[in-house]
């Protein structure tokens, strides 16, 4: 089953939010990489990655997210991932990425609260 993929960037609460819909895999990670580049080339080092509407993520997609996190780590940036699907959360947990500058949240309000605490 092929799922429609889309990615868009919006500015909310003075931090970019990247909203992703569909599946993140080898075929779609190029579009996600472009969104990360647009976001990280600005002065803002941190961003919210909203994966609420993701059905699937493969190792290529996870690697794309890890690479973006590594790039912004040099600016003391952080990736605030919003995800409600246990199977996708587990992928982040077992990958070891949560020991880096990536944090998981169940909703946008939790992420924004954490961002406010860190500023």
Number of helices: 4
CATH classification, class level of the domain at 28-47 and 56-118: Alpha Beta
| Average pLDDT, all residues | 90
Could you tell me the strand content as a percent range? 25-35%
Decide which structural class fits the backbone.
Answer: alpha/beta
Helix and strand run: EEHEHEHEH
Distance between the termini: 43 Å
CATH fold-level topology of the domain at 28-47 and 56-118 = Transcription Regulator spoIIAA
Largest sheet strand order: 1-2-3-4-5
What is the name of the CATH superfamily of the domain at 28-47 and 56-118? STAS domain
List the helices and strands and how they pair.
Blueprint: E1 6-12, E2 15-24, H1 29-40, E3 47-57, H2 59-73, E4 79-82, H3 86-95, E5 102-105, H4 108-118
Parallel strand pairs: 2-3, 3-4, 4-5
Antiparallel strand pairs: 1-2
Helix pairs in contact: 1-2
Verbal overview:
With 119 residues, the chain is an alpha/beta fold. It has a domain at 28-47 and 56-118: 2-Layer Sandwich (Transcription Regulator spoIIAA), CATH 3.30.750.24. Helix content is 40%, strand content 30%. It is built from 4 helices and 5 strands; from the N terminus they run ββαβαβαβα. Helix 1 links the parallel strand 2 (15-24) and strand 3 (47-57).
What is the compact description of this entry?
By secondary structure, this protein is an alpha/beta fold. The protein is built from four helices and five strands. Strands 1-2-3-4-5 form a five-stranded mixed beta sheet, sandwiched between helices.
Notable traits:
119 residues, alpha/beta, Transcription Regulator spoIIAA, five-stranded mixed sheet, 5 strands, 40% helix, globular
């Amino acid at each position: 089953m092929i799922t429609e993929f889309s990615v868009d960037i919006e500015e909310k609460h003075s931090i970019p939010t990247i909203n992703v819909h569909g599946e993140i895999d080898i075929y779609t990670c190029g579009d996600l990489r472009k969104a990360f580049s647009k976001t990280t080339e600005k002065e803002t080092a941190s961003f919210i990655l909203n994966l609420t509407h993701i059905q699937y993520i493969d190792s290529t997609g996870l690697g794309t997210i890890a690479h973006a996190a590594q790039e912004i780590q040099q600016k003391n940036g952080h990736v605030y991932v919003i995800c409600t699907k246990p199977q996708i959360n587990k992928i982040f947990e077992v990958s070891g990425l949560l020991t880096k500058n990536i944090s998981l949240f169940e909703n946008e309000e939790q992420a924004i609260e954490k961002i406010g605490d860190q500023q």
